[in-house]
Every structure is written in C-alpha cells, then in structure tokens.
C-alpha cells in the first residue's frame, strides 16, 4: 500500500468514515461520505478534473495560465524537430540550431532546460553555456529514451535561497514544508529533495506561512484550486516565484523526515471539508 493511501485510510479510521479497498494491491480505494463515493488511486485524488490535472502536468500551460497572476520564471516551449508528423503543424524550429538561436535571443545564460512533462527533477538541466543547452535538448528529444519528451522548455534561471512545497485544498494552505538542501550534496538531480542528505522541513512559522498564502492568493479568484502541491521558490532578493504545480503530491519524503501524523491530520481536514 502506498504512503498516500495508507495515511488517507488512517484519517478515515480516526473519523469513522466508511472506506473499502477495491484492488488486491490496496491502492484503489472508495471512501464514502454522506452516501457520496470518492475514489482515490495511487497518488491521485478525486478532487481535480482531468483538464485541470493536465494543465498542471504541462509546465508550458501552467506558465501561460499564471504568468500574469504571480511571479513565474520566463518560460518558452520548443517542439522537437523530430516530432511525429501529426505535431508538425506546430513546429516553429526545424532543427536544434534554430532552437539554440531562439534561446540565445530570449534568455541570458545560465538558463534552465527541462522537459515539459515529467516530475522528480528528471531531465532538468542548469546550462551555463550554449553547448550545455544543446546537450540538454538532445537528451530531452532522444526518442529512444524512456525520459523522452517532444516539448522542451527553456526557463529563466532563478537564484533560489529557499524552495517550498505548499499543499493547497479548496484555496486553503494546509501544509507547508521546505525542500532544504542546506546540508546536502548534489548528486546529479537539480530537484532539491533528490540531493543526498536533503531534508523536508515542516514550516509552521506564521511569517513564512502568511507570505506564501499572500503570494498564491491572486491565483484563486479566476482559478480555484481544489487540490495541488505548489513548488514555490524564494530568491536571494526576497522575491517569491511559482516554479510549478503538482496535481498528485507524494508524501513519502515528508514522512521520512517528519511525523506522519501531520499528514494524517491534513487528510482529516480534507475529509471533514467534504462532509
């Protein structure tokens, strides 16, 4: 049984809420509240429509949707010159050299190059020079790789001092933790919690929580958030940035470094707000 499901069921038990595991691996669960069924599977919840989940998975869509609401690093998407024929009507650049030229015109190095879809920091590169940009694009566009993506993003580099994960449910911040690499060692993955020795630090300090709440608040009037994990960075100048949004946050690393009762209490809050 996956961590998210296990802790959800603990919350159900505390609240005497009816639930049933519907698969032999116990990772497909029906929870019944006021005679209404809610289905949870693996790391996914029933709270997000498929279209909204797809927006969050597509970092280019996320950028265009929120760039006028909050600070988001400048981002430009590039379709692979090697894409399938059905996508070629969207093709602006016929080869990697043309993409490199566009990146040099749009961004100041260093620049982040990443695949448009994906998670866990895979195929995310910090590029100090144009040859590193070329290498990154070739890796992302490698059709023989399991990490292949037909869209690559170039993204403005942010000098990050602190990076946070904020769990939001129905426009409310329920959980905040820092992805701390203060005493960690880089081992090839830029995602902070994939550094060796990195820690997920539960943040309860009112000043920081309020600052994050105020930062994301402009999103909600036009785009209510039923459930998501916001990755938010604070740069060296004290400015907050929305890096990306995760539609199905995983709590494995958090409970490795913190008491799992924190997540159980979070799920209890969620379930109580469904009744």
UniProtKB/TrEMBL annotation:
<dbReference type="Pfam" id="PF08443">
    <property type="entry name" value="RimK"/>
</dbReference>
<keyword id="KW-0436">Ligase</keyword>
<keyword id="KW-0067">ATP-binding</keyword>
<feature type="domain" description="ATP-grasp">
    <location>
        <begin position="76"/>
        <end position="275"/>
    </location>
</feature>
<dbReference type="GO" id="GO:0005737">
    <property type="term" value="C:cytoplasm"/>
</dbReference>
<dbReference type="GO" id="GO:0009432">
    <property type="term" value="P:SOS response"/>
</dbReference>
<dbReference type="GO" id="GO:0046872">
    <property type="term" value="F:metal ion binding"/>
</dbReference>
<protein>
    <submittedName>
        <fullName>Alpha-L-glutamate ligase</fullName>
    </submittedName>
</protein>
<dbReference type="GO" id="GO:0018169">
    <property type="term" value="F:ribosomal S6-glutamic acid ligase activity"/>
</dbReference>
<keyword id="KW-0547">Nucleotide-binding</keyword>
<dbReference type="InterPro" id="IPR013815">
    <property type="entry name" value="ATP_grasp_subdomain_1"/>
</dbReference>
<dbReference type="GO" id="GO:0005524">
    <property type="term" value="F:ATP binding"/>
</dbReference>
<dbReference type="InterPro" id="IPR011761">
    <property type="entry name" value="ATP-grasp"/>
</dbReference>
<dbReference type="InterPro" id="IPR013651">
    <property type="entry name" value="ATP-grasp_RimK-type"/>
</dbReference>
């Amino acid at each position: 049984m996956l961590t998210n499901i296990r802790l959800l069921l603990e919350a159900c038990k505390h609240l005497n809420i009816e639930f049933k595991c519907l698969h032999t691996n116990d990772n497909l669960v029906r929870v019944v509240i006021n005679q209404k069924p809610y289905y949870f599977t693996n790391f996914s919840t029933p709270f997000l429509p498929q279209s909204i989940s797809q927006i969050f998975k597509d970092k280019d869509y996320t950028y265009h949707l929120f760039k006028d609401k909050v600070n988001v690093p400048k981002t430009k998407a590039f379709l692979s010159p090697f894409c399938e024929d059905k996508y070629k009507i969207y093709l602006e650049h016929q080869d990697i050299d043309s993409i490199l030229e566009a990146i040099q015109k749009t961004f100041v190095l260093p620049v982040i190059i990443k695949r448009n879809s994906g998670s866990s920091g895979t195929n995310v590169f910090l590029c100090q020079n144009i040859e590193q940009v070329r290498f990154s694009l070739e890796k992302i566009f490698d059709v023989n790789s399991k990490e292949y993506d037909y869209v690559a993003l170039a993204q403005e580099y942010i000098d990050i001092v602190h990076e946070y994960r904020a769990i939001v449910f129905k426009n409310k911040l329920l959980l905040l933790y820092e992805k701390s690499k203060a005493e960690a060692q880089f081992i090839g993955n830029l995602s902070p919690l994939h550094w060796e020795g990195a820690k997920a630090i539960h943040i309860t300090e009112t000043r920081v929580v309020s600052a994050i709440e105020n930062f994301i608040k402009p999103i909600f009037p036009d785009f209510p958030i039923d459930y998501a994990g916001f990755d938010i960075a604070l740069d060296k100048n004290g400015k907050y940035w929305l890096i990306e949004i995760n539609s199905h946050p995983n709590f494995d690393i958090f409970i490795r470094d913190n008491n799992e009762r924190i997540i159980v209490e979070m799920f209890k809050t969620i379930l109580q707000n469904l009744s």
